[in-house]
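Support request, priority: normal
Reporter: lab tech (M.K.)
Component: structure prediction queue

Hi team, I submitted a job for AAA domain-containing protein from Amycolatopsis xylanica yesterday, and the status page still shows it as pending. I've pasted the exact input below so you can check whether something in the sequence is tripping the parser. The sequence length should be 827 residues. Please let me know if I need to resubmit or if it's stuck on your end.
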Amino acid sequence: MLGQEWTLAGRGGQLETVLAAAARGECMVLSGAAGIGKTRLAREVWTRLRAAGHTAEWVTATRAGSAIPFGAVSHLLPEGGQADRLALLRRVAAQFERAERPAIVVDDAHLLDDASATVVHHLSTRSPAFALLTIRDGEHCPDAITALWKEGQATRVTVPKLPGSAIDSLLAETFEQQLDAVSRQRLSRVSGGNPLLLREILQAGFDSGTLRRRRGRWRWTGSVPATARLGEVVADRLNAAGDAIAGVLEVIACGEPLAMTVLEGLASTEAITAAERQGLAVIDHSGNRVLARLSHPLHGEVIRSTMTRSRTRHLAGKLAAATISSPMRRRDDALRAGVWQLMAGHAGNAEILLTAAKQAMDRFDLDLAERLARASRDSGGGWRAENVLAQILSHAGQANSDILYWGEGKERASEEISGAPGRRAAEGNRSFILMFDSRCADALKVGESVLATPDAEPQAVVWAATGAGAAAGLLGDTARASAIYRLGLDVATVHQAEVPWGATQVGCGRLMGLLANARLSEARELAEREYKAALRDEAENVVGAWAGFLGATAKAQGDVRVAASSLRESLSLLKEYDAFRLAAPCLASLAGALALSGDGRLAARLLDRAHSPERQASRLFQPWMELDKAWTLAALGNRSAAASTARAAADLARDFGQPTVEGWALYDAARLGDAPSVHARLTALGSLFAPAARGLAAKDPEPLEQAAWIFADRGLLLHAAEAAATAGALYRSDGKRTLANVVLERAAVLAQRCHGAHTPLLDASGLRAVLTRREHEVAALAVAGLSSRRIAEQLGLSVRTVDNYLGRAYAKFGVRGRAELSRAFHP
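Reply from support: The job had stalled in the queue. We restarted it manually and it finished. Here are the results:
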C-alpha cells in the first residue's frame, strides 16, 4: 500500500514562499530534521519549475560522495574539465547564463564536498540561476554553503513538522478513509509530524500485522513493533547514547511522563543531565511537579519493544516500589503504581491495586480495570476486590442483565457493602447499572439519594448523575434531568483531577435523555464534542462509545451517511471489549441506518448478527433495536410487518418504563402507515409526535406543516422532511398550489440534508424541489439580503439573469417581492 509517493500535504505555504522566491531570483535554503519532508518539497519545486519552462538541474549530495571532489556536481561540469578551478567555475556559470531561466536544486547540501560546495556557492551568487538547497538540522555544512545565509545571499527557511491535519490527509490517502479515528490519532502522535517516520511506522505495522483490516476498516492494535527498518530510522540517535544514558531512557520509556523525584532515585544525576543535553530527554514542569519524558514519542515505542522481558519486569518493579514509598499525593499515583505492579508480574499491594482498578474503571479502561481487580483479589483483596471486579464485568458486558452483584440473588453482598467505606460510590454505580437494566424509576431513586448526600465522593456523584440523569430523561422529566446533569457536571469540573472522565460520564446520561426526548440538535452537539475530547486522549472504549452515540443520534436525525460511518467506527473500536454491551445495539442501529438508505438485505444480515447468542444487549436498548428491525422490514418491502414491529417496540418500551421511547416507537408505526391506531396513545402520552400523528391519520396538512417546523428546530431532519412533504402533497391535492410549493421547497431542502434517506412517507409524496438548483441559490442569497448586483458578482452571472431567476422563484411561490419571498423561505 505504500508503493506510491504521497501527495504533498501541509506544505502549501512553504511551496508558495519558495516559488515566489524563484520568481524573484532569490536563493533559498530549506532546513529541518531528518525525514521532515525537505526533499519532497524540493522535488515539488523542481518539478513545477521544469513545467514552467525553467532549465532546472537536480543535485543530490551523499555521504559516500563527499570524499570525491566535484562528485555531486560532476554532471554539471563541462567536458574536458580544466585544472584551473576558477576557470572551471566560470565555464559552469556561463552554461547556466546561456540556459533558459536556469535553476539548481541541491538536496542534502550539508553532505557536499568542498569543491562541489564552491560550485553551488558560485552559481548561487555569480549567475542568474535560482538556487534551492536543503540541509539537515544539526549537521555541519561546508563553509561555502553556510556563507550563503550568513552573508545574506540566501534566505534560510525552517521546514516544520507536519500539522495533524496534514498527517490525517496522508492517512486518508493511504487508507481511503477506512482507518479508525483512534488509530489515526495515535499514528499522528507517534510520528511526531514526520512523514518519513510515519511511512516507516505504517510499513512496520503492515509487516508485523499490528496494522490490519477488519470488516472493511483498518485498525492499529498494540505497540509499535521494532522492525529492522524502523530501528534504523532512530538508531543514529539512540545507539550513540552510551550505556548510562540508555539506562535513563529505558526508565523513562517505562514510565513517561515520570516524576523527576522517582527518576532521580533510579538513575544518576549525571546520566539524566547528559540525556537532556543530547536532546533525548525533556524535563517539563506540570504544576508543582517536574516530569521527564522522551523527546520523541517514537523513541519510547522503539525502546519498550526492544527491551527484554526480564529488564521490563525489573524496571517496573523498581518504579512501583519507588512510587509506593513516596507520599502518593497525586490521584493517578495509585493507578500508575498498580500498572507497574502488573508489569512486574509478582504479588502486589492489594489496596493499591484495588484503588487502581477503580480509577481504571472510572476512565473506561475496562480491560486494564479487570486485570487490576483480579490482581487485587489474588493479592488478598477479599470481597471488596470481588465487588469491584463484578462491577467491571458488568460494565464490560460479561454479566447477565440482572447484574452480577445487584440482582435479586445478591442481597447479602449488598448488605455488606451498605455499611462499608465507599458505599456511596457503590450506590452511584448501582444507579448507573440499574439505568442500563431499564429500571429507570429505581435508578432515579438510588441516584438522587446519592446526590442528596453532602459528603458523597466525586466519583459517586458522577456515577449517580449519569444513571439518574439518563433515567429522568427516559421517564420524560426533562427539567429534572437537566438539573441532575448540571449538578454532576459541576462536580466533575471542580474535581477534574480526581474524576478525569467525569464530564464525559455525566454526558452519556445527558445524551440518552436528550435522544429519548427528541432534542437531537443538542444531542448531536454534545456527541460531537465528547467524541473529539475522547479522541484527543486516544481512549478507545470512550471513543467507541461516543462514536456509537453519535451514530445513533445521526440516524435519529436522518443523517444516514454520518450514522453509518460513525456506527462502523464504533463497532471496530468496541470489538475487543464490548463496553456496556454497546456492540449489539450499535449493530442494530447500523442496520437501521442502512435500511433508511435503502439497503434492506445488508440491514437484515446485520440484525441477525446483533441478535446472535454471543451478543447481549442491555434492556435499555432493546426497544430501539426493535425499531431498527421495523425499518429493516420496511426496506425489504414488508410494510405491514414493519408497522406491527414498531407497535411491538412501543409495548416493550412501555413494559420497560420508557414512555419517551414508547412515543418514538408509536410515531414510527404512524410513519409506517398505522397512524389511525396510535395517535390517541401518543396524545395521552403528551408526546411531541402526537400532532403529526393526528395529521397523518386525518390527512390534514396544517398540523403536519406545523410539526415539520418544530421537528426541524429540534434537529429531526428526516421527520421534518416527511411531515413537510406530506403536507405539501396534501395542499397540492386541495388545490393550494402556492402554499404547496412553499412547503415542498422546504421539504426538499430538509431531505437533501438526509443524504438519500428513503422512507414510505417521502417516497409516497413524490417529493422534488420546486425550484431548480440555480433558482434556489439565487433566492437564498436574495433572502440573505444581497442585492442583485452582489448576487451576480458572487455567482458570475449578469444582473438581468439574476432578476430572471428571482422572477421565476416569485412566480412559483406566488409572491411579489423579496419580503414575501423571505417569509416563504422562513415561515
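The first strand starts at residue 27 and ends at 32. The longest helix spans residues 366-395. Let us know if anything else looks off. Ticket resolved.
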